[in-house]
Write a structure and sequence with these properties.
The protein is an alpha/beta fold. The chain has 14 helices and five strands. It has two domains: 100 residues, no CATH class; 211 residues, no CATH class. Strands 3-2-1-4-5 form a five-stranded mixed sheet, sandwiched between helices.
């Protein structure tokens, strides 16, 4: 079999032992959410490739690798024995892999991301952090923007997509993720992120964030749910003289600004920025054309990030 130089470098990213470990780890999370459709008794329709959850897992793995669907399908020919262990009868082609990945819904993948994150973080977690970061430049040519439309290259440019994540500060596992346009306010995404994180009832946590999340109504609402929003007040914040948690925390900040900066501007809030750094530093191009597929690829990259966190303690103890 003839390999092109780029394809030869691509197969180095797929180690058969690592692929087997990833598929075995994904099985308990994906098997029930993506049940296997048995082949037709009449022999009509597309030929049976293998369990659906295996094809979905391969799509997630590919989304976090610097290769095309063609290179990924060709590299899987070296892992035929590994795939056979998971009841894959025929090696999937690039068209089959892309078709299954295109049909995969984001909802089950989000629930898998949250389930893996809680396995990593544990229910005894006490500190959460929230933040957002821009990811995708939706333009055909970056040079055109730099040369002719330099004014559009801003944080509020519609050419950027923004990812909002809620993470555990101790384990740095991503509990939930949401995608919006770059100009959407961060504070509006707090409620859907917490709802998707599926925080166990009765758990009291501190939620750390920057000044963009300072909101009086949100602070009181989260406090009723057992979440204390730890956010540095804005410069135009006014003390209403009440006994609310918002006014009490503001008076504490005014009286002990040095203690506040030493306590809450440390690794707790910056841990979520570390997550963005780890994901962005991986040399994985965003080659999807449609926005929905771009969001799904980003979701898969954060899902693989959680999976690596979950596998790391197991590999250390083995």
């Amino acid at each position: 079999m003839d390999w092109e130089p780029t394809e030869y470098m691509a197969i180095l990213c797929i180690h058969p032992a690592k692929l087997e470990s990833l598929l075995a780890s994904f099985k308990p999370f994906l098997c029930e959410r993506f049940p296997t459709q048995e082949p037709s008794a009449t022999g009509r329709g597309r030929p049976f490739i293998g369990p659906q959850w295996v094809l979905v897992a391969l799509g997630v793995i590919k989304s976090d690798l610097p290769m095309t669907w063609r290179s990924f399908a060709k590299a899987l020919t070296l892992c035929k024995e590994i795939l056979a262990k998971f009841k894959v009868i025929n090696l999937p082609s690039k068209t089959t892999l892309h078709r299954y990945w295109k049909q995969t819904l984001e909802g089950p993948l989000r629930r898998v991301l949250t389930e893996i994150a809680w396995n990593v973080a544990g229910e005894e977690t006490k500190d959460l952090a929230i933040d957002s970061s821009g990811f995708q430049l939706k333009a055909g040519s970056l040079w055109r923007l730099l040369k002719w439309d330099r004014g559009k290259l801003k944080k509020t440019s519609p050419h950027f997509d923004k990812a909002h994540i809620l993470a555990d500060t101790r384990s740095q596992a991503v509990l939930s993720i949401q995608f919006t346009q770059s100009y959407d306010a961060d504070v509006k995404l707090v409620r859907p992120l917490i709802r998707r994180a599926q925080i166990p009832s009765g758990v009291t946590c501190r939620l750390h964030g920057d000044k963009a999340y300072h909101d009086e109504v949100l602070q009181e609402e989260l406090l009723n749910r057992g979440l204390k929003l730890i956010v540095e007040p804005k410069k135009n914040t006014v003390d209403h003289g009440t006994s609310s948690f918002r006014d009490q925390s503001f008076r504490f900040y005014q009286a002990n600004s040095g203690l506040w900066h030493a306590t809450f501007r440390t690794y707790r809030k910056s841990s979520v920025e570390h997550v963005f750094g780890v994901v962005k530093l991986r040399p994985v191009p965003m080659n999807a054309r449609r926005e929905r597929m771009q969001h799904k690829q980003l979701l898969a990259r954060f899902l693989m990030y959680n999976m690596r966190l979950w596998l790391t303690p197991q590999s250390d103890t083995s």
